[in-house]
Amino acid sequence: TQKRTVSQRARQHSTLKDDGFRHAYVLTSLEQIGQTDIERLPLSCNLGEQTGPFDIIGDVHGCIDELDMLLQKLGYDICPESGYRIIHPDGRQIVFLGDLVDRGPDAPAVLRLVMAAVTSGRGFCVPGNHDAKLLRHLNGHKVSITHGLKETLEQFEVQPTEFKLAVQDFLDPLPSHLILDGGKLVVAHAGIKESYQGRSSGRIRAFCHYGDTNGETDSFGLPVRYNWALDYSGEAMVVYGHTPVQNASWLNKTICIDTGCVFGGKLTALRYPSREVVSVPANKTYYDTPRPFLNS
């Protein structure tokens, strides 16, 4: 029986990385077990003690001018000369929904602003699929240079090594989603089902990055996405981006605020808890989308 148990544990350990666990420690003796202290810590996604008020910003995609305009419209004081000092007179905090990079004109400037906001304690961020792909590239993994990554890498060529390392250090620990305001508010790049909220695994991270997909592509060569929000019945408000829409609208306590700025649409923020939607128009179309984005 003991031998069978050990064998089962070994098989389970071999699949932990597939489940999304970054670190696994194996104790092989009673002596090791006796010398080990176990401390239960909350997941990094659990920031329920942060109550806001928040300004949640949709997919920026390197559109630094529009981001500056939106933050100013929201009442933030921005001083880029001092390393992006970002302050709101009412103590509001910014939440970025990811896809900071690719397709747009200045991904490094967007990253500098977001990193400054987060490291100063005035902002929070979850990663988008484009950010995750950039991180894989910076970490030395082979990725396809498509969907705007080429533009980002060209912009990175003139950046110092210290900046690239800082971007890696910033993106790597970002949680797949965030639980805020005592669980009343959940943010994730592509959304998140109720059963995934407050949990962590590779499957959940993939959902937060890409949404509900099955590997199929449409006539435009893009992933077929299922509208998970149609079936959402959770208590928490879920704010997300990823799939561009012409105008942000509510569905079952969820709202998508990616309004396609880089495609010539708008850059949008949701003010929480007031639910006010604030947008600025794109200065131009920076990147042609193969699939027109329509109101959902």
Q: Percent range for helical residues?
A: 25-40%
Beta-strand content: 15-25%
User: What is the string of helix and strand elements?
Assistant: HHEEHEEEHEHHHEEHEEEEEEE
Q: Tell me the major beta sheet.
A: 6 strands, mixed
N-end to C-end Cα span: 56 Å
Average pLDDT reading: 89
Number of helix segments? 8
The shape, in one word, is globular
Using DSSP, what is the number of strands? Answer: 15
What does this protein look like?
With 296 residues, the chain is an alpha/beta fold. The chain has eight helices and 15 strands.
Write the layout of secondary structure elements.
Blueprint lengths: L1 H13 L15 H5 L11 E2 L6 E4 L6 H10 L3 E3 L5 E3 L5 E4 L10 H13 L3 E3 L3 H10 L10 H8 L4 H11 L5 E4 L4 E4 L13 H9 L1 E6 L5 E4 L10 E4 L9 E2 L2 E3 L9 E7 L3 E6 L15
Parallel strand pairs: 1-7, 2-5, 5-6, 8-11, 11-13
Antiparallel strand pairs: 2-14, 3-4, 7-8, 9-10, 12-13, 14-15
Which features would summarize this protein structure in a list?
alpha/beta; about 25% helix; about 300 residues; six-stranded mixed sheet
Task: Write a concise synopsis of the structure shown.
The chain has 296 residues and is an alpha/beta fold.
